[in-house]
UniProtKB/TrEMBL annotation:
<dbReference type="InterPro" id="IPR048279">
    <property type="entry name" value="MdtK-like"/>
</dbReference>
<dbReference type="GO" id="GO:0005886">
    <property type="term" value="C:plasma membrane"/>
</dbReference>
<feature type="transmembrane region" description="Helical">
    <location>
        <begin position="65"/>
        <end position="84"/>
    </location>
</feature>
<feature type="transmembrane region" description="Helical">
    <location>
        <begin position="138"/>
        <end position="161"/>
    </location>
</feature>
<feature type="transmembrane region" description="Helical">
    <location>
        <begin position="21"/>
        <end position="45"/>
    </location>
</feature>
<feature type="transmembrane region" description="Helical">
    <location>
        <begin position="369"/>
        <end position="392"/>
    </location>
</feature>
<feature type="transmembrane region" description="Helical">
    <location>
        <begin position="428"/>
        <end position="448"/>
    </location>
</feature>
<protein>
    <submittedName>
        <fullName>MATE family efflux transporter</fullName>
    </submittedName>
</protein>
<keyword id="KW-1133">Transmembrane helix</keyword>
<keyword id="KW-0472">Membrane</keyword>
<keyword id="KW-0813">Transport</keyword>
<feature type="transmembrane region" description="Helical">
    <location>
        <begin position="173"/>
        <end position="191"/>
    </location>
</feature>
<feature type="transmembrane region" description="Helical">
    <location>
        <begin position="258"/>
        <end position="276"/>
    </location>
</feature>
<feature type="transmembrane region" description="Helical">
    <location>
        <begin position="329"/>
        <end position="349"/>
    </location>
</feature>
<dbReference type="GO" id="GO:0042910">
    <property type="term" value="F:xenobiotic transmembrane transporter activity"/>
</dbReference>
<feature type="transmembrane region" description="Helical">
    <location>
        <begin position="105"/>
        <end position="126"/>
    </location>
</feature>
<feature type="transmembrane region" description="Helical">
    <location>
        <begin position="296"/>
        <end position="317"/>
    </location>
</feature>
Length: 465
């Protein structure tokens, strides 16, 4: 098929100054990640204040189910990002549209299957998770509404992935902002039945999320068609809304390992929680609060990693390997700078940051300070690993980064944490973080330098730029 001609108003990540392009591409992703975290935190505050601890326990169990769904959809969405990016880099807009058409139908079918399973088996799923008996009814009510909104959640994530793959990170942020504002505003109204709204209790919180996702998704689609976004499916292109099994096979084959990577991270944290719980409630509280703070420290690395994946995919599609290399090292430098700045601030205000969640004096505060002092700086290494792995994945080589994550977290960090904790006490556990992240960063750098990832492809060989 002949290459589609370039258009001046089409976003491109294959030209222009790399540092400036990467900065302005990653900032909306970073702000979107912060926004989603704040949204979840504020909703938890609404539920806790209005409905109490039992309701919070119910939402915690429901959110674990949603995390696994998001993990799966994250991998498939990232595969779409790379497919779209490589095709656009190679100037094959028609092929990119085929990806959009197939992904739309595939995600729709997948979301309807997940919704049907969730609505039918929510009660049994929550029972299998050993949800506390007093929270089960609340958890079922909350989970069923969330499952009803899965088609809009999947659709929203797919459209955002396509936009980022084409080089547009700003538009997804604006509609994430709309979704967060609606969700936060509707939560208390529907929980308590304020004004003309019905009092729905915990189901009201889930309904607020449902409405926010539906409205934002519909508004995003309307916006893209009114702006005549170049990857939209027009009336003359409805034939593209069909299953192309080659594209589906590639999406699943490359997407599942990326989703499994998130599950590996989650599993490694569950093992750590089990270990920390053995030291008592103060240790568990300290670890939970330190985890809240470290989630914000990781955000620059996640944002830069996501931006680097999109940029590298387009440049690989264009055959611009020198530019891919410069994107990689610019991303590493950005991560070291941004993450390092956050780490420095939290080290300087360690007690004050922990004091937002914990009593200013006591065992939990001291434990939290130990955790932060030994782990925060290691997230710079995590960022290097995440950025380099993002570039490797952008070529279509997704299994090796998964294997490296498995080795570094489940075979190095967690066993080391158990050994150090049992032999040297609570404080020694946290040396496992820099060791594990150093192994992950080192192995990824070795694979980047000597591995065969440059030969991997998700689309046909690119036309030389």
């Amino acid at each position: 098929m002949s290459a589609s001609p370039p258009q001046k108003n089409r976003p491109s990540l294959t030209e222009g100054p790399i540092a400036r392009t990467l900065l302005f591409f990653s900032l909306p992703i970073l702000l979107g990640n912060v926004l989603q975290s704040l949204n979840g935190s504020i909703n938890a505050i609404w539920i806790g204040n209005f409905l109490g601890e039992t309701a919070l326990a119910a939402t915690s169990n429901s959110n674990l189910i949603m995390f696994f769904l998001i993990s799966a959809i994250f991998g498939l969405a990232m595969a779409s990002v790379i497919l779209v990016g490589q095709n656009l880099g190679a100037r094959r807009v028609d092929e990119a549209k085929k990806v959009v058409g197939t992904s739309t139908v595939f995600f729709l079918i997948l979301s309807l299957i997940v919704t049907g399973i969730g609505l039918t088996f929510s009660h049994w799923i929550l029972q299998a998770m050993n949800t506390p008996p007093d929270a089960q009814a609340l958890a079922v009510a909350y989970t069923r509404v969330l499952f009803a909104g899965v088609p809009f959640m999947f659709g929203f994530n797919l459209v955002m992935a396509v936009l980022r793959g084409s080089g547009d990170a700003k538009t997804p942020f604006y509609f994430l902002l709309l979704s967060a504002v609606l969700d936060i505003a509707l939560n208390p109204l529907l929980i308590e039945g304020i004004g003309p709204f019905p009092r729905m209790g915990i189901a009201g919180s889930a309904t607020a999320t449902f409405i926010a996702q539906l409205v934002s998704f519909a508004a995003l689609i309307l916006f893209l068609y009114r702006r005549k976004y170049f990857l939209r499916i027009t009336a003359e292109e409805l034939h593209l809304l069909r299953i192309n099994w080659t594209i589906v096979k590639t999406t699943v084959k490359k997407g599942v390992p990326m989703g499994l990577n998130m599950i590996v991270v989650s599993l490694s944290n569950l093992v750590l929680i089990h270990l920390v719980n053995s030291y008592g409630s103060e240790a568990a509280a300290a670890f939970g609060v330190a985890g809240q703070l470290s989630s914000y420290v990781q955000m620059p690395a996640m944002a830069v990693g996501g931006a680097v994946t999109s940029m590298a995919a387009q440049n690989i599609g264009a055959g611009l390997w020198d530019r891919v290399s410069r994107v990689t090292w610019t991303g590493v430098a950005f991560n070291i700078t941004l993450t390092g700045l956050l780490v420095l601030i939290l080290h300087l205000f360690n007690r004050q940051a922990l004091g937002l969640f914990l009593p200013s004096t006591g065992k939990a505060m001291e434990m939290g300070m130990v955790i932060n002092n030994l782990t925060l700086w290691s997230f710079i290494l995590f960022g290097i690993f995440n950025v380099v792995a993002g570039v490797v994945r952008s070529s279509g080589s997704v299994v090796v980064p998964l294997v490296i994550s498995f080795i570094a977290l489940l075979l190095v960090r967690n066993p080391l944490a158990v050994f150090l904790g049992h032999h040297y006490g609570f404080e020694a556990i946290w040396w496992s973080f820099p060791v594990g992240f150093a192994v992950a960063a080192g192995l990824n750098l070795l694979y980047y330098r000597f591995g065969s990832w440059r030969k991997a492809r998700m689309v046909a060989e690119p036309r030389p730029a």
